[in-house]
Design brief:
single chain, transmembrane helix, 7 helices, globular
């Protein structure tokens, strides 16, 4: 139990620092930014209490907001992602999720990609909708969501494969 807490604490801190120090300074073509801190929410243990996930997701999003001076949009998008996560897990993994037997280190790559894609698109759509907050800028919101999501999904999957897969 303590090793799970320790691993999640380290993941929380490392992802926060990488997001704030490196990823927040990437601004490709003016609107493409990776938000890899959401890996923490994706990889949070499934058997853990859902309230803990919601609270830590809020804390993570709020800390990103504090460092990026973004007024709470990351906290809102992170909490929504954490809240909707069971739907994404069930959609992506089906019966594995029903039986609480998902181990991200040895899941099928297609299911993992589906899970990360659904979560990232939802997170980014909420994030950019709140950031822009203008109905006449719907095209800009969709463009930022699509392109930042593609970049984020690729980075998230690479990071998860590199750091979470069983070394065979």
């Amino acid at each position: 139990m303590n090793s799970i807490l320790g691993a999640n604490s380290v993941r929380f801190i490392v992802l926060l620092l990488v997001q704030v120090i490196i990823c927040s300074h990437i601004n490709f073509l003016g609107y493409i930014n990776p938000y890899i801190y959401i890996i923490f929410i994706f990889l949070f243990p499934i058997r853990e209490d859902r309230l803990i996930l919601l609270i830590t997701s809020f804390l993570l999003g709020m800390l990103v907001d504090v460092f990026l001076d973004s007024g709470g949009v990351h906290a809102a998008a992170s909490v929504f992602l954490a809240y909707a996560r069971p739907v994404f897990l069930k959609t992506s993994f089906g019966m594995l999720y029903e039986h609480q037997s998902i181990k991200f280190s040895n899941t099928e790559l297609g299911s993992l990609i589906t899970y990360i894609t659904l979560g990232t698109l939802t997170h980014h759509l909420i994030l950019f909708s709140l950031e822009v907050f203008n109905i006449s800028s719907t095209l800009l919101i969709l463009k930022k969501t699509l392109f930042s999501s593609i970049f984020t999904i690729i980075l998230c999957i690479l990071i998860i494969i590199l750091f979470s897969r069983n070394k065979k």
